[in-house]
Amino acid sequence: LSALLAADLWASRRLGVCAAEGSPCAAARPLLKLVEVSGHGLPWLLGTAYGLCRSGSAAAREVLLNLLFALLLDLVLVAVVKGLVRRPRPTHNKMDMFVTLSVDKYSFPSGHATRAALVCRFVLHHLVLAVPLRVLVVLWALVVSISRVMLGRHNVTDVLFGLLLGYALYSVVEYCWLSPLSAPALFALW
Q1: How far from each other are the two terminal CA atoms of the chain, in whole angstroms?
Q2: How many angstroms separate the CA atoms of 10 and 33, rounded?
Q3: What residue segments make up the domains of the chain, in order of their start?
Q4: What's the rounded Cα separation, in Å, for the pair 5 and 119?
Q5: Ordered DSSP codes for 84-111
Q6: What would the pLDDT profile of 81-109 be if each residue is shown by its tens digit?
Q7: Given 40, 125, 126, 154, the catalytic residue
Q8: Main-chain dihedrals φ then ψ at residue 160, nearest 5 degrees
Q9: What letter would DSSP give residue 22?
Q10: Phi-psi sector, 99: left (phi>0), alpha (psi -120 to 50), beta
Q11: Which DSSP string corresponds to 107-163?
Q12: Which of 33, 83, 142, 185 has its CA 20 to 30 A from that of 161?
């Protein structure tokens, strides 16, 4: 186990090529920070809540309400796991992250990777998209996840576990799908 941890730390440090201004690929840092924002929970929560409030279709409201439920479940689950594990962020991480809260000082698991996998599966399952757009959604999830290691925010295992957790979390959301029949009070609000 200690050999795996050492390999994880070594690989994470080697792949953190945009972790600081003096890093080998520092020129890509602003772009990766933009990718970081695209996978952050706050824009997703606010955008989903806004879409839910502005939606005129019952079907769209159902999908958006379940996406909001998924995002909230993701935030709570990641916060609980981070609070239990308390793995510190990599030492080469520059703490200039977009909007952080108490448990965000911990590294395991990557909330961005969890959210990216969850949103990717959700979008691919609930939106009718042409193949090029479906490929872009998957690429976005992968780029968000890879950016976490490149920026030095997370170790490789944090991201891999986050991807697995997000993938599994989508199955929970599907199992607990909220509909006008199963949660009439929620749908009465809109």
Answers
A1: 51
A2: 23
A3: 27-188
A4: 29
A5: HH-PBPPTT--S--SS--GGGGB-SS-H
A6: 999 999 988 887 776 665 566 667 888 99
A7: 154
A8: -60, -45
A9: T
A10: left
A11: -SS-HHHHHHHHHHHHHHHHS---HHHHHHHHHHHHHHHHHHHHTTSS-HHHHHHHH
A12: 33
**Residue type at 132?**
P
Token couple for 80? 């609980």
Asked if the model's pLDDT at residue 173 lies above 80, the reply is: yes
134-165 pLDDT, tens digit per residue, is 999 999 999 999 999 999 899 999 999 999 99
Q: Residues 153, 159: contact at Cβ < 8 Å?
A: no
Contact status, residue 61 vs residue 184, Cβ threshold 8 Å = no
Is 112 part of the annotated catalytic residue set?
yes
40 catalytic residue (yes or no): no
pTM, to two decimals: 0.88
Residue of 92, 112, 125, 126 marked catalytic: 112
